[in-house]
Structures are given as C-alpha cells and as structure tokens.
Amino acid sequence: HVDCILDAIGPSAQSAFGSALVLLGLTPAILSGVGFTIGEIAYLAVHRPGLSFLLSMGSPMVYSGRVMAYSNPEQAWQHTGSSKLVLNGINPRFGVVVSVLQYILAIGSVANIFTLTIEICARSILTFDCVDFYKPILWAVFPILIHLMGTIPYLIGSKRSGNLYASPWLQSDPGTHRQDAQLGSQKKDTLLLNEESLQNPAPQPTHASFFWWIKRHIMEETTICACRPPVSLSSNTKVPLWCVFFNSTASLVGLVHVVYGTIVLSSVYFIRIEIAIYCIARFIISAVVCRLILIVEFAGMRGDTR
Fold it and tell me: What's the distance, Cα to Cα, between the start and end of the chain in Å?
C-alpha cells in the first residue's frame, strides 16, 4: 500500500519527505550530546533516585563517550555544568519550591517525549516495516534500561563495600543533624551509657520503623542537594569489578541505541520537513530541561561537600 501512496504523490513531495528523513536520522546523534552519562544518573540516584529515574526517561539518548570506558559516578558531578557553579545557603522553603518545580519540569519532559513518539508512530510508517508501529517507542524507552544497567549495580556494589557515603539521609536519621547541633557537648555524655544498654537496645515497633523508613526516604527524595547537610567525599572509593563491567557494558549498549535510533528515525516516512524540525525541537527541549535540572543538583553538591 505504500507504493500506491507514493504513486499518487508528486516528486516534489517525495523529495520533501526524503529531506525530513535526513533530519530525523541525525536526531539521535544530536541528542546524544545533550544526554546524560551513565555516571551522572548513577550518582544522582544515590541522592534522589526518583528524580534520576524521571530524568533518564526525559532525555531520549545516552551520552556514551568512549565506548567500554568506565563512567565514574563519583567524578561525574565535578565535571557537569560549570565547575564554578555552586549553590549553597538556600532557604529550605525556597528549596521546596525548587524541588516541586524540578518534578513538574521532569514529568513534563517525560510526557513530551512519549506523546511526541506516539504521535510519530500514529502519523507515519517505517519504510522497512509497515506493520509494526512501536519501534520509535522502543527507542524512547530504551535509555531507561541503559541507565538502570549502570545505576543499580553501582548502588548495590557501593553499599556492600561501605562506600555509599554520598547520601546523609541513608547514613543517619533525618533528625540526627539537628540533634547534633542542639546537643553540642552532650555527645560526650552518651559515651557514659552502660555497655548493657548498648548491646540490648529497646525493640522498636515494626510499624513505627516502617513509617520512619518511608518518611526518611521521602525527605531524601524531595530535598534538593543544595539544602542538605555537608557530606565528606573521598576520591579513593573502591568499586567492585562487576559494577565496572555493567557500567562499561551500558556505554556499549548506548552506542547500539544510537545506531538503532538512527535506523528507525531515518525510516519514518510521510513526515514533512517542517514537522521533522518541530519534532527535533521538542526532543531537544526535553533533553535540555532535564540537563538543567541535573546541573542544579550537582551545583548543590559542590556547595554542600567538604
């Protein structure tokens, strides 16, 4: 049926469709320059896993860099954006506004990517496959799997190695930092507790512990990095070999994703050149918005580390 449609279309229209194919075929390469590295999403997931998951969905390409090279999460935050951009001393109330705005923008970017991809599937066909319409959707979803491949092993491996130091809420209860500031010298008195009370602490109700666990993780997720307590970072963190393997493999899969996206988008037919430009602009807007959110978070890390 495609041949029948092409027979009814003039040469000028077919030429315009061909130009649109070239533009769409370049889209994955363009977006990869704005996309996140494996290390960036993995390190942000230590602080704000929910936001990092949204950002991985809102940016449809992964920046692989050198293939099979280890994308070090603990150095990613130092090289993202301007190294001189530091955010600290932000009012907690303003931080709540920033956090809400981040989620609104991230969810909007995700919605923009998927609505646009579904629209492309509904209003066009692939030159090499006229039946299956879901291939552009697979291209949009695949970055999530790539980032999970690099993020989950890093979180598990670092936690088992005792190196998950970057999130203060995971190391202590949210009220600990306020209690330390208020008690001051009273910390010394805690050393006088008898050995029996330390070895046999009072049991906590299961439901209370569960609700406290939820509260702690909600606080961790919704607090921007610029409003968190200072964190001491070490540059000599040891990462298990299997984590390095998954990280490096994810960069290779990212390259395959670029090739797959180029094949799919350069095969989308019956789209005019102005519509192709419109689609590319929407993809870039989502990727840039997500990138700006990450830059703000990493700038907060620079301000709250010592």
Answer: 65
pTM for the full predicted model: 0.78
Q: Hey, is 91 helix, strand or coil? A: coil
Question: How far, in Å, CA of 302 to CA of 226, rounded?
Answer: 8
How far apart CA 270 and CA 133 sit, in angstroms, is 14
DSSP codes of every residue in 195-260: HHHHHSPPPPPHHHHHHHHHHHHHHHHHS-GGGSPPB---S-----HHHHHHHHHHHHHHHHHHHH
pLDDT in tens, 218-264: 888 888 888 877 655 555 567 788 888 999 999 999 999 999 999 99
Q: Which residues contact 243 (CB under 8 A, 6 or more apart)?
A: 153, 154, 156, 157, 158
d(CA 253, CA 268): 23
Span 62-99, pLDDT tens digits: 998 888 888 888 787 766 655 567 777 778 888 889 99
